[in-house]
Design brief:
By secondary structure, the chain is α+β, with helices and mostly antiparallel strands. The strands form eleven sheets. Strands 12, 17, 18, 19, 20, 21 and 22 form a seven-stranded mixed sheet that branches. A seven-stranded antiparallel sheet has the order 32-28-29-30-31-34-33, with no helix packed on it. A six-stranded antiparallel barrel has the order 2-3-4-5-8-7. The longest helix has 22 residues. It starts with a helix and ends with a helix.
Length: 1369
């Protein structure tokens, strides 16, 4: 509790530092005139009760303007005018000179209240006053009776509306509101139980403001008492159950806030409503929870990303980034229109909200109570001058005071379901955009990307369109006007002056597609009364700021980087100027800086140099406050804990962590963003020309195609020695034996960036990937006419658009072909000469063909391709070689391979080439593990059990499992996990569960039911879940194998039950101290036996004979295949236990057996078994040879910063790689991980010699003499040699403490003597003598001598000390 209070106090201090002190609104500004003209917007403004009415131009030459208006912010260039109003237009009579200011201050509390009361009421009446479609007859009918009329119920049932003024857009909107058939959702009744009531207030934030006399603190205290809660939940439910207004709830306070700091113009103030805490909390529960759950079940539009579970603003920004990246790779034309709505929440009609909420099964009584409260609500105004006594509200015969109160708990959810209907209605008649992957098996397709009320509309032309630019603009205009029209229906309006549009278009220049930066096209939108506005155009290398990101269609990152750098610089300046303690500085770093930085890093990809510039800011600002010298080497500041670093993440590593985790999370979640990532990745894969997945092979660089988020991620993986396996990614296939990717082969030889671009242009134009795509069907040569630029392969894929490349592109291609593939051909032969392939290709593989060949054959059928008609099928006629036409086919068998034929006429072809049946062997299923025995009956009901074993210190994790029909019919197997970073019993148990299920599949069994027992309750729960609930869960430890288990269970036809069984039931009795001591001694004896080794002839080491298990029942044949033990009929476990307990005990023994085998072998198991990654895991990351399944941040950080600090340590301590490998880094990490920050920093300084000793201070001063003695240079080693009495005493006390620490812990005296002698030698950095110690102890002494005895004093111990301690006991 104290810690939370302290953190809360620090947070308030940091908020004041970073955001400034909150200033209360004690004055407002109002204009001095009434009518103004803006040349910039070509419109006139009228000031009316605190708002500006903007009238669009009708005839600029004659100064005529429409009589309808919308509310806007007045332009800066506005000048006073005099006007005359006519029935059909407004005329400007006189233009007046612009005064120095058009604003005057209002400071009187009474005047401020008066102006604000009028302004707020007029502001909320804007939708009804402006009229339009929302005030048409049909819409007034819909809005009547609080939106709960029988007419509306008919619409919800899907009945047709026959009204005269129903426009096509209105009909589409009403159709979108209709409830889908055959989907039942539970009604939202308004009944709130005691438990729900208590949970609501338990989760409520105590500091939330409210408008009633009782704040959230009081309500939370009342909710804790069950008798109070029982009564209060009934009182809260009654209005919603019976549809009446609670009079107490009808009082609200408008809090006036500045939209922009320091701007107090009356029209620029924001209204935030404060309601009674119980009313607002009930609305959150009924609408944000219950209604939204129903809405999600009905199927909300995939285009709305705000106010919904499992969606965020980062996701919406990533969709935009991936669209741009895909369009650049494909050279596709893409247009975007960026909309903004006027005063969105304040223009929502509560009756429309009720109407749409009925779609989600909210009871009418709930909606009526809500509507009555809003209708009768009296609103007061609160400023820095106090809260007004007067109020405003709905008065008779006045325009409707509309709007959902901003700050009301149900508003985000109500807007979400309303925007859903608008988006679905818009999509019904809009073109939208569509970008396919090369094989057209998935696509990025949408009309809009909306986050709350910020919407981006998208349009593109068909990929094969002859004039994509003009077609895209035409579609964009249509979709933009339709979006405006549909928003006008419920009362919203698009702020034309805030909208912008962009287009990513292309033009061919010198054989390359270049971005077209300017356009003569315009986008003109009309309002619902005929007024028109020209929408501002943004060039593609300029960003449109949205959701906190500055993304450019061209991929230009400069704007986003400048924004992030400026924000971090501003924050650092504020921190530097504040006097913060060490604790406050750390809290500012982790709770202010990193969150602010992290958000900007997700949808961006900065260079390492740019990230270093940000690090310079943060290190200079925060390190002094952390008691670290700002000049400390960055390798130490950002280095891993185990090597003495401070483990503060640098910007580049942090961005790498976010990108990798985001990729894993979204691909495993497998929803919209995951699909878009895969579509983008597929297009990059084709553009690269690789057949190997580009994230599994992260070298060489793809600098010949446009950079982007995914290509940058590939480069980041390369910097940390990592790869990424993606289960569902697409790649072109190798076509035949000895086939290969042309680009991959070319990149093996030295080429310039220009040559790589020319190769890409040539291959993209030819539309080929592999050698087989370009070679003759015989696989022996490349026809010369295919290398001159006139030939293009037929293909069903969508290739990036590529105009005719220059001649030098094909010259480069031919030269590299001769240098790599066709090495026997002369460089002086004509350019159209055939090129002989040095190593001819073999038989064709049964895979999808990359190109459409003219003729293919399978068995007795030939398939000939005809452009425009598809494949024609010809059937063999006798043995003469003739094939007769039988018709057209939609697809060709995958085993068909290209051949050469002679076309006799349209009805027959001829060839004498015989059909060669392919002989490629089919790969069988890998065994789930090493099978110990097997006499299982393959039929009937089966049961199973699994268990795991973990030796953490030895880095060994194993699993064993048993499948049985009965006591006599069973099979068992074991597996040792060797290449996964997650060492835990949880992972071992999951491995056993997964492999048990795969074992059943491996045996070809399909039982009715499988009952499986496991002794790890967490693993049981993970196995029994049916789905993963949130994207964040996809990063949980060992989620890869959980997904694999779920995937496998969805595939099998039988049911499975995983049940929990208590572990070690054979050893549950309480043991005496003597028994425990005996067991401990026996374990130590066994461990010493395991590590004792003997020399063998070839210089390697093997376990001594006494360490081998004498009763081993397993064996392995000479070629490493699985073998079965000779005695399958062994007893499972002691009698008297249940079947499941006996099976669990047996599995425990099997897993222990696997662990013992692994201890005795220094190599990974040689038998062929199922290995990660597993089918269904979606995506996995491998760093080096280790699959990362947990602690992603830690391992990515180590992979990036570890080598840097390792190099620093080698230089600093004069070590080589062999010496570095002798040090016990894990021990250092284990100790430092739990240190307090001050000790953590001090241990860093000790390890790297950065203590403030005189030797270090002498670099900046002239004195290096020891302050405690006469030594002229106080080095780190001198600290242990100084003859000052205090130093002598400290050394003596420390050595005594070390020696005394052995008592009571059973540490061998001989070991302790040698260890202390080593420390003593460290005082002078002298070598330790290596007498005839036990072998392991002698090894430890030699290793420490190599590291340096003086380094022991800095924490660097040899790993062999641990083995020596075990040997000596």
């Amino acid at each position: 509790m104290k810690k939370r209070v302290d953190e809360s106090q620090i947070n308030r201090k940091l908020t004041a530092i970073t955001k400034g002190q909150h200033s209360q609104l004690d004055l407002i500004q109002i204009p001095t005139g009434e009518w103004y003209y803006s040349e910039q917007g070509n419109e006139i403004f009228h000031y009316d009760k605190g708002v500006w009415e903007a009238y669009p131009c009708k005839d600029k030459e004659n100064h005529l303007y429409y009589t309808h208006h919308t509310l806007k912010v007045i332009k800066e260039d506005a000048i006073p005018i005099s006007v005359t109003k006519y029935p059909n237009h407004i005329h400007i009579d006189t233009f007046h000179d612009k005064p120095a200011t058009i604003w005057k201050d209002i400071t009187s509390a009474e005047e401020v209240e008066t102006y604000l009361l009028l302004r707020n009421k007029r502001h909320l009446q804007q939708a009804d006053i402006e009229g339009g479609v929302s005030s048409s007859n049909i819409m007034r009918k819909i809005r009547s009776e609080h939106g709960l009329s029988e007419f509306n119920e008919r619409i919800l049932r899907g009945e047709k509306v026959e009204e005269m003024d129903a426009t096509p857009e209105l009909l589409d909107w009403l159709e979108a509101i209709a409830v889908p058939p055959n989907i039942d959702t539970p009604p939202v009744t308004g009944l709130i139980t005691r438990q729900e009531y208590q949970d609501m207030f338990k989760n409520a934030r105590e500091r939330t403001s409210s408008g009633g006399e009782a704040n959230y603190t009081v309500w939370k205290a009342l909710a804790e008492q069950e008798d109070f809660a029982e009564f209060l939940c009934i009182m809260m439910s009654l209005p919603f159950l019976y549809g009446f207004a609670n009079d107490r709830w009808c009082n609200e306070i408008d809090v006036m806030l500045e939209k922009k700091p320091g701007i107090r113009k009356i029209h620029m103030l924001r209204i935030i409503g404060l309601l009674h805490a119980d009313f607002n909390t009930a609305l959150k529960f009924l609408f944000a929870k219950q209604m939204m759950q129903n809405a999600e079940n009905l199927g909300l539009s995939d285009e709305q990303w705000g106010s919904r579970k499992n969606r965020s603003s980062i996701d919406a920004a990533m969709l935009k980034l991936l669209m741009f990246e895909t369009a650049r790779i494909k050279k596709a034309t893409l247009a975007g229109t960026f909309y903004d709505l006027v005063a969105n929440y304040d223009r929502i009609f509560p009756s429309i909200s009720n109407f749409i909420a009925r779609r989600s099964s909210v009871n009418q009584t709930v909606l009526k109570a809500r509507a009555l409260v809003i209708e009768r609500m009296r609103r007061r105004v609160k400023t820095g001058l106090g809260t007004s006594e007067r109020s405003y509200g709905q008065d008779p015969n006045d325009p409707e005071v509309g709007g959902e109160v901003q700050g009301k708990g149900d508003v985000p959810s109500l807007w979400c379901v309303q925007s859903d209907t608008l988006l679905r209605a818009h999509s019904k008649g809009a073109y939208g955009m569509c970008l396919n992957n090369p094989a057209k098996t998935r696509q990025i397709k949408r009309c809009n990307t909306q986050f709350v009320d910020d919407n981006d509309g998208w349009a593109s032309a068909p990929f094969d369109c002859d004039n994509p630019h003009q077609e895209t603009v035409r579609r964009m205009r249509h979709d933009a006007q339709r979006w405006n029209n549909i928003n006008n229906i419920p009362g919203q309006t698009v702020a034309f002056h805030k909208c912008k549009w962009q287009i990513l278009a292309w033009k061919a220049i010198n054989g390359e597609m270049e971005i077209h930066h300017s356009t003569e096209d315009t986008l003109v939108l009309k309002d619902n009364k005929g007024g028109a506005a020209v929408i501002e155009f943004l060039e593609p290398d300029q960003p449109n700021k949205g959701l906190g990101y500055l993304l450019c269609p061209t991929g230009n990152q400069k704007h986003q980087y400048d924004a992030v750098y400026t924000a971090i610089k501003d924050l650092c300046q504020k921190i530097v100027g504040a006097q913060l303690s060490e604790k406050e500085t750390r809290q500012a770093l982790f709770q202010r800086l990193y969150p602010k930085l992290d958000y900007g890093l997700y949808a961006s990809y900065f260079t390492e140099e740019e990230c270093n510039n940000i690090d310079k800011l943060t290190n200079a600002a925060f390190l002094p406050g952390l008691r670290v010298n700002r000049n400390t080497p960055r390798s130490i500041v950002h280095g891993p804990t185990e090597m003495g670093g401070l483990a503060l993440p640098d910007c580049y590593t942090r961005q790498t962590q976010h990108h990798i985790k985001y990729m894993i999370k979204q691909l495993r979640w497998d929803k919209t963003i995951g699909g878009d990532i895969l579509t983008t990745l597929d297009n990059i894969q084709l553009a690269s020309g690789f057949t190997t997945p580009i994230l599994e092979k992260v070298t060489p660089s793809l600098d010949y195609i446009d950079n982007g988020w995914i290509i940058d991620l590939r480069d980041r993986l390369n910097t940390i020695g990592a790869t990424m396996w993606i289960d569902d990614s697409w790649q072109p296939k190798l076509q035949r034996v000895n086939d290969f990717s042309l680009m991959e082969r070319f990149l093996r030889v030295k080429t310039t960036p220009q040559e790589r671009k020319l190769l890409r242009m040539a291959l993209h134009h030819m539309r080929v990937v592999t050698l087989a795509d370009i070679a003759d069907p015989t696989g022996t040569y490349i026809p010369g006419d295919r290398l001159t630029g006139t030939w293009r392969a037929n293909t069903a894929w969508e290739w990036p658009k590529q105009p005719q490349p220059p001649k030098k592109a094909f010259a480069t291609l031919r030269r590299l072909l001769r240098n790599t593939i066709c090495q026997y051909d002369s460089p002086y032969q004509p350019i159209d000469s055939d090129l002989s392939i040095t190593e001819p290709m073999g038989e064709w593989l049964p895979v999808e063909r990359n190109v459409i060949h003219d003729c293919l054959r399978y068995d007795d059928t030939i398939y000939c391709y005809s452009p425009g008609e598809g494949f024609m099928s010809y059937r063999k006629r006798g043995e003469s070689g003739f094939f007769n036409l039988t018709g057209t086919v939609e697809s060709v068998p995958i085993h068909a391979y290209p051949i050469s034929t002679v076309s006799i006429d349209k009805n027959q072809v001829w060839t004498m080439k015989r059909f060669r049946r392919q002989t490629q062997p089919e790969l069988g299923k890998p065994a789930p593990g090493r099978i110990l025995f097997d006499n299982l009956n393959r039929r009937g009901h089966i049961k199973g059990a699994s268990d795991g074993s973990l030796l953490r210190d030895d880095g060994i994790m194993t699993a064993g499992w048993l499948i049985a029909n009965n006591e006599d019919e069973k099979t068992a197997a074991i597996f040792a996990v060797t290449n996964i970073n997650s060492l835990s019993s949880y992972r071992a148990e999951l491995e056993g569960t997964f492999r048990l299920l795969k074992h059943i599949d491996y045996l070809g069994m399909s039982p009715d039911e499988v009952i499986h027992w496991c002794d790890n309750e967490a693993a049981v729960n993970a196995t029994n879940q049916h789905s993963i609930h949130t994207p964040g869960d996809m990063l949980s430890p060992d989620m890869d194998i959980i997904l694999a288990i779920l995937h496998h269970k969805r595939k099998i036809s039988y049911t499975t039950q995983c049940k929990h069984v208590l572990a070690h039931q054979d050893t549950k009795k309480r043991k005496s101290k003597e028994e425990k001591d005996r067991e401990k001694k026996q374990r130590m004896k066994e461990r010493r036996a395991r590590i004792r080794e003997v020399d063998v002839g070839d210089g390697t080491h093997a376990p001594s004979p006494e360490s081998s298990p004498s009763n081993s029942t397993t064996s392995e044949d000479s070629n490493g295949s699985d073998s079965i033990i000779s005695s399958p009929h062994q007893e499972l476990a002691p009698t008297g236990l249940s079947d499941e307990a006996q099976m669990n005990v047996a599995c425990d023994e099997f897993a222990e057996l696997a662990a013992q085998e692994q201890l005795q072998s220094s190599k990974a198991p040689s038998y062929s078994t199922l290995q990660p990654p597993y089918e269904g895991s979606k995506v996995m990351v491998k760093i080096g040879s280790t699959w990362i399944t947990s602690k992603y941040d830690e391992y990515i950080h180590k992979a990036k910063r570890g080598p840097i600090l390792r190099s620093y340590c080698k230089e600093r301590h004069d070590w080589d790689d062999d010496t570095m490998d002798l040090i016990n880094w894990q021990l250092i990490e284990r100790v430092r991980r739990n240190q307090k920050w001050a000790d953590f920093v001090r241990s860093m300084k000790v390890m790297h010699g950065w203590l403030p000793i005189m030797h270090n201070l002498g670099k900046y001063k002239t004195i290096t003499q020891c302050p405690g003695c006469e030594a002229q240079d106080e080095t780190f080693l001198h600290l242990y040699q100084c003859n000052h009495r205090l130093m002598n005493k400290a050394r003596t006390d420390a050595m005594d403490q070390i020696y005394e620490s052995r008592k009571g812990k059973g540490v061998n005296r001989q070991f302790m003597d040698v260890f202390i002698r080593s420390i003593t030698c460290g005082f002078t950095n002298s070598q330790i003598e290596v007498p005839h110690y036990p072998k392991e102890l002698a090894t430890a002494v030699r290793d420490q001598n190599k590291i340096g005895t003086g380094k022991m004093l800095q924490g660097y111990l040899a790993k062999s000390w641990q083995a020596a301690l075990t040997e000596c006991g």
